[in-house]
Amino acid sequence: MLFGMDGVEVTEAERGAGGRLTVWARITLPAMCPGCGTVSEKVHQYVTVTPRDVRACGQDADLCLVKRRMKCAGKDCPAKTFTESVPQLPPRCTVTRRLLEHAGAEVADRGITPAEAARDAGISWPSAHAAFKAKAGEILEEEPAPVAHLGIDEYRRGRPRWRKDTDTGETVQLADRWHVCFYDLDGNQGLLGQVEGRTSDDAAYWLAGATPAWRDAVEVVAIDMCAIFASAVRRMLPGARIAVDLFHVVQLAVKTTGDVRRRAIRELYGRRGKAGDPEYGIKSLLNRNLESLSPEQFEKVIEILDVTAPGQQLAIAWIAKEKLRDVLNLRARVTGSTPCERQVRDRLFTFYDWCAQHEDIPELLTLAGTIARWENEIVTAVTTGVTNDLASHCTSR
Fold first, then answer.
1. What is the pLDDT of residues 13-39, one digit of tens each?
2. Cα–Cα distance between 3 and 29 in angstroms, integer?
3. Which of 114, 192, 219, 240 lies at 20 to 30 Å from 99 by C-alpha?
4. Is the dihedral of CA 280, 283, 284, 290 positive or negative?
5. Do 159 and 177 contact (CB within 8 A), yes or no?
6. Distance CA 180, CA 151 (A)
């Protein structure tokens, strides 16, 4: 009863000189030939196997299972002999099923790596990974519950694998390093699914596998500023609104400021920026939020940028970045109240007007054009507050 393996009876237990426990057991189930199903009682020989098993009372134990090799009683059976077995230890297996199930549950439930589970169970990494895959398969068979806010993001996993086609001589990709992940952003389901590749068809493939009722329940989809994902959403979820992740909007504005700074330094010095250049020394300050600067730091930025014409262009780009941030700061996460669409579009107009007043700066025109193409998606992100922040957390786990 303590051993807990159906069809197996403990005959002896002993502790060695080092204190390690050894358990001797035998099979009590009828010996049935796997070929013809005939029950046999003719013993050909006895064999002892030592499979890996779970710990006994928190300590490692060596299992010595005495199995009988039987002579088949069936006259027409091609198998002359066979070895008895139990469901927990099928023929030719050196690890019990319950140890594999334990290792798979450790990875699935505790979130440890297959390598750690393999070391803890004393089995190989492929065995632990296969056990986790079987455990995850049981969960993935369940259909995900409907979600109102869906997150779509790309995730780099491992390295791509290739092989050479012997017939054509061309290199064929076997595994893509990029995957598309789908997340529940307003519930507790976390990662809903993952498909290999990051094309529009790859994203649409997973969405097409969901039921029409599930797709109709999606109200807002959060994505990067990626036309590929937007195309898949418009194709498979025509009733859903798209919200871009505002992190990438700010990142684009910061990049624009950096592009203007690098061009300004080249115009001033005819080379790349380096330590000692005033404009190079304030690059980290230009990347920070305006409200995060101390009065001394703000005064330092103004003094440096107001000296030369290229520096003034950099100041204009910096102001454009802050005007765009003013739009994003309307979201409820910052103000505590949900903004209306008109407020967001009014601040966007202020940003566009500033860029139009300084159309001699090509980087600003590029930024304004990109924001204009994604204006509706930005407005949705600000008014709904839907973001992919949870997606990065789920992927890191």
1. 888 877 788 889 999 888 888 878 788
2. 16
3. 192
4. positive
5. yes
6. 10
